Amino acid sequence: MQSDGKFWHASFRKVVSNTTAAGTWCDLSYSPGSPPANFYATEPLVAATLNSTKGIDNGGAVTPDRKFVKKLHVVSASTGFQSSTLMLCDYLLYYPFIDGDETSTQSLDNTVTLPRYTSGSGVQAMLVSQGAYTGNVNFTISYTNQAGVSGRTSPVVTTNTTATAATIVNSGTAAGSRGPFIPLQSGDTGIRSVESITFAAPNGGILSLVLVKPIYDIGIEEVTAVFATPSQLDNFYDHMSGETIEDGAYLNFICLPNASLAAGVLTGMLVTTWR
């Protein structure tokens, strides 16, 4: 593939603009740098997509070929990134400015549909804060699953109390919090669309419900005051991930940090290849 010129190298540099907490996932797309910050700033409750050119450059359209991650290299001298996990995702669709204080069911507009992975298989949902909030509130979402069955309901999730922008509020270490993604009803493997969200009590703040397709993950193991140890994985030798990167993909990272990442700098390189 490389001898045929079917590969792409792209660098990235993110400067984390928000306080984060150990054990709570955060959305690095919200931070400035290269690529630029994404604030999910469109019409409230109406599904919208992100422009691929505003995410990590992955080499553009290659159809009819299939594109894969060839290599991912990350490094940071910021202590919050030590023992952290990074997950590269394709951000597919989002529903912005959900009112965290509204306890009535909030209906979401699905005029815009999934632009990629349209069956919904493997597509996951995360609730990202767009500002400060209180937290410690239960919520559920109603969605259509990968088989096209509507009216599915997530298990109850408790929001965390990290209370800062870019936090994935469904994640955390407290009872009732979950991992980076909202769990699905038993037997479901993905989401085509989300129809509504309901908070059991005022949560505070405004939030964006984001649908993503996880692509690749990598850890940063060592950071010291003197030097930073790069982490690098070569997909075809180390990881063997079969996830494809679709044409039009908006790529960025979510992160599970070891401590606050505020003012931390993450740099790296993504290499893609296709055949």
Question: What attributes does this structure have?
Answer:
275 residues, five-stranded antiparallel sheet
Brief overview:
This protein is mostly beta strands. It has one helix and 15 strands; from the N terminus they run βββββββββββββαββ.
Percent helix among the residues? under 10%
Q: Major sheet: size, sense and barrel closure?
A: 5 strands, antiparallel
Overall form: globular
Protein structure class: mainly beta
Describe the structure.
The structure is a single chain. The protein is 2% helix and 37% strand. The chain has 275 residues and is mainly beta. The protein has one domain (7-274). A hairpin with a 6-residue loop joins strand 8 (138-145) and strand 9 (152-153). The radius of gyration is 18 Å and the shape is globular. The mean pLDDT is 94.
List the helices and strands and how they pair.
Layout (H helix, E strand, L loop, with lengths): L6 E9 L10 E2 L5 E2 L32 E9 L8 E16 L6 E2 L16 E6 L8 E8 L6 E2 L3 E2 L32 E9 L6 E15 L10 E4 H5 L11 E6 L8 E10 L1
Antiparallel strand pairs: 1-3, 1-15, 2-14, 4-13, 4-15, 5-12, 5-14, 6-11, 7-12, 8-9, 8-10, 8-11
